[in-house]
Amino acid sequence: MSSRLGHIMPDTVTYATWSTGNNSGDPSWGSQSTADARVEFGSFKTRNAQGVEVDAQARIFTETDIPRKARVWLPGDDTAKGNEARKVTRRVEASTPDAGLTLYELYL
Questions:
Q1: Total-model pTM
Q2: pLDDT tens across 18-47, in order?
Q3: Domains in the chain: boundaries
Q4: Which of 4, 31, 62, 86 has its CA 20 to 30 A from that of 70?
């Protein structure tokens, strides 16, 4: 995927969106896609959807609308292994005033 901000988004992440849940509540995932991103590893304090403070090990910035229920593989993760995928803890969206550009900040 080509990014208008590719010069500040040197990384590529892979993600799969949540599709459905079966009768047991197990998730079903859509096809994997990739997105240009800026990945920052570290320890980040953030709040999840319930407002509880949690620790995140990575933060990514992207122009791609990766939903909260997606699972995400960061650079170096094996995308064939579902257990290496990370869950989005927090998702923040910001648009320019003319809605010409929307950026997403995700904590994993």
A1: 0.84
A2: 877 666 767 778 899 999 999 999 999 999
A3: 6-107
A4: 4
